[in-house]
Design goal:
533 residues, 19 helices, alpha/beta, 7-stranded mixed sheet
Length: 533
């Protein structure tokens, strides 16, 4: 007991803790420690306020989602049905880069569209530098020999990446409308028949469909990815459309009015999220995006951690780049009300949430030990101030429950969905917390304007549990310093848990446990997938 008390007192002196709460001894903190406590507290509260504000803005979308679904239990029909004679010409664009595992399946599925054969053409826009070139050319020729209107388009360079490919292919498109699919998508045969009629409304510039998930049961990683995606393709997209806010084309599984792209200034490659960028510019020109929640388009989720992190990096950095580029234009726009500008800002700074979460996570440990000094010196700070921010967490739980259980998008029973949600949601939240370092780095790069290559998300034609990931040359076995830091942060939060238990400070225990699990999972699976055969 003497040794334990000596060790305890040593830690107290080292960390400048409050011995009154721990040992009953008197202790007076120095001015430097008080300043440190105040600074850390302010940084923590600012990041917590940002996170809570974002959650409440999402909760408003939840309100509009419920309002819309009460009025339209199903997606509203287009103005009127269209006969085959009335259907317009459509160009289906398939931009790709090194997609040898999925290109044949994609082309076969697209060519089976239930649309008049003479009223749609397919352009395979291939920037590949591997076997995909020969595979794609052979598949295109196969369907061409059958009398279908399909062309293989290849550029001499990969300038501008996906945005550049779509821009360069625009003059070759004969269609009045452009349907775009990434290589891992498997749209249903009726896709064009169900989307094109909505363009009878001249204000509709884009029709976007909901992503479905071919391989969501493949692994724990794919099971957890589904949750935030389902929220986006239910509450967020439909809520924004219902409230008249800015929403987005998701880069694939949607159709553009060709004139809309031209009027908005065309595809631009100065951000990694060219789809979000063009979406904002099109809506500021007066066009609407029609989102169809009930029309799904199946696709493959990243089944490998390093592929998943590459996708996250592109989305988060691109989101910050688009915010940096478009926020001034949004706030100068005469088309948007003040509240729509605020919601649009919340939308564009969504990726910055990870930076705030990272800051909040790191500072939570010193705040745990120094908050008593803040209360002593700032008497206006409520003792239970952190409790008030639970409103943001409860909003998030409600939204995730709606997007993954209440929304009728999977065909499963509500009870089965609820049982899965109970254990998947905490793990999903932990995974998101564990991505904070990785995504925060991407966000900082985006805000600072640091340019980087468009890194594609590798597709492996993985559909069900047990399917093998054929990495080939698509994922290089290279250990990054960031991965080491993720392991360090795992240890940091494990120590924070032990620290809290040792001193009886349990307010942050659940938070630190989720962070330890999150960073541990990211660290473990990154290494496992990196060095697996």
């Amino acid at each position: 007991m003497v040794l334990l008390e000596d060790f305890q007192n040593w830690v107290i002196k080292l960390l400048h803790l409050d011995p009154v709460a721990v040992t009953g001894q008197d202790y007076v903190a120095g001015p430097g420690m008080i300043i440190f406590a105040k600074v850390v507290f302010v940084v923590y509260i600012v990041s917590l306020l940002f996170t809570t504000f974002y959650c409440l803005m999402q909760f408003q979308l939840y309100y509009y989602y419920l309002k819309y679904r009460k009025k339209f239990p199903q997606d509203p029909p287009p103005l009127k049905p269209m006969s085959d004679d009335e259907l317009p010409m459509v160009t289906v664009q398939l931009p790709m880069f090194n997609e040898k595992y999925v290109v044949e399946k994609l082309v076969d599925i697209i060519m089976k569209f239930d649309y008049p054969k003479d009223k749609f053409e397919v352009h395979v826009i291939d920037d590949s530098n591997d076997e995909t070139v020969e595979i794609a050319q052979a598949k295109v020729q196969e369907w061409k020999d059958k009398g279908y209107n399909i062309e293989y388009i290849r550029r001499p360079h990969r300038q501008g990446f996906k945005a550049g490919a779509l821009k360069d292919a625009m003059p070759l498109a004969k269609g009045e409308f452009l349907a775009i699919f990434d290589a891992d998508f498997e749209p249903y045969p009726e896709f064009l028949r169900k989307t094109i009629p909505y363009f009878q409304d001249p204000t509709v510039g884009v029709v976007q469909t909901r992503w479905e998930h071919i391989n969501q049961e493949h692994s724990m990683l794919t099971k957890l990815q589904v949750l935030p995606l389902n929220v986006h393709f239910t509450v967020e997209q439909l809520g924004r459309m219902s409230g008249g806010y800015l929403l987005q084309f998701n880069g694939t599984a949607g159709v553009w009015r060709k004139q809309t792209i031209d009027d908005a200034g065309g595809w631009e490659s100065d951000t990694l999220t060219e789809d979000l960028d063009l979406s904002i510019r099109a809506q500021l020109k007066g066009y609407r995006i029609m989102f169809l929640e009930k029309l799904g388009s199946p696709a493959e989720l990243p089944a490998e951690m390093n592929a998943f992190k590459a996708q996250q990096h592109r989305w988060m950095k691109g989101g910050a780049e688009t915010a940096r580029k478009m926020l001034p234009t949004i706030w100068k726009s005469g088309r948007l009300s003040l509240w729509k500008k605020i919601q649009g800002t919340s939308h564009l700074v969504g990726s910055t949430l990870f930076l705030m979460v990272f800051v909040m996570s790191i500072t939570s440990v010193p705040v745990m030990h120094t908050f008593h000094l803040v209360k002593q010196n700032w008497t206006w700070v409520p003792p239970k101030i952190f409790t008030y921010f639970m409103v943001g967490f409860l909003s998030m739980v409600t939204i995730y429950f709606t997007g993954n259980v209440s929304a009728d998008i999977s065909g499963k029973s509500k009870w089965e969905l609820f049982k899965g949600f109970i254990w998947r949601f905490p793990l999903c939240l932990s995974l998101s917390l564990g991505l904070a370092l990785h995504n925060a780095k991407a966000v900082i790069e985006g805000w600072l304007g640091q340019k980087s290559e468009f890194v594609r998300t590798p597709k492996f034609n993985v559909a069900k549990k047990g399917d093998v990931i054929k990495k080939g040359n698509y994922i290089k076995a290279k250990l990054k310093p960031q991965t080491i830091w993720e392991g360090v942060l795992m240890l940091y939060f494990i120590l924070a848990i032990l620290d809290g238990l040792f001193f009886g400070i349990t307010e942050f225990l659940t938070f630190h446990l989720m962070l330890a699990v999150g960073y541990g999972s990211i660290f473990f699976y990154t290494l496992r997938h990196l060095y697996s055969k």
